[in-house]
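Q: Here's a chain of 167 amino acids. Please give me its 3D structure as tokens.
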Amino acid sequence: MRDYGLEEYILIDLGIIRDFDYYTGIIFEGYTDYLGFPVCGGGRYDNLCSKFRKNFPSTGFAIGLERLAMILEKENINSLKIKRPDQYVVHYRNDKTNFRRALKVTKKLRKNGLIVELEVGRREFSEVLNYASSKGVKYIVIVDDNQLNKIKRVEVDSGKEEIINYE
């Protein structure tokens, strides 16, 4: 670890006990300042593969992806530079004509690579707005019978509205 310049990040604890009985040698766990439980863990298991009729003495480990995601979020790191597509909720007045139009709009938005939920309940717009805000949804699209070939797009955070042709 010294050769890699990592000795300040390593703590050796000879009292670690793992719950798995297949370990035959060294075991380890990886921690961070942000979590009180391990992010990864593993060790040496010389006899595990022999239970599957092969003798492969091995060393391995597992990383908890959810735990890694929590750490990256705390560090505000997006090392892959992935831009998440905008999320939409499509809201409509609850009748069959508007449902069909809302379904058509939903399919078109999804075809364009967006994350879209179709609001199928009978919630009022204010309830849908609260829901969208709590889930980090960027836009609500409103389909109603007053605007046949148009939809209203509302930005959840700012309340900014715009009318869009959709056919």
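Q: Can you summarize the key feature?
A: The chain has three helices and eight strands.
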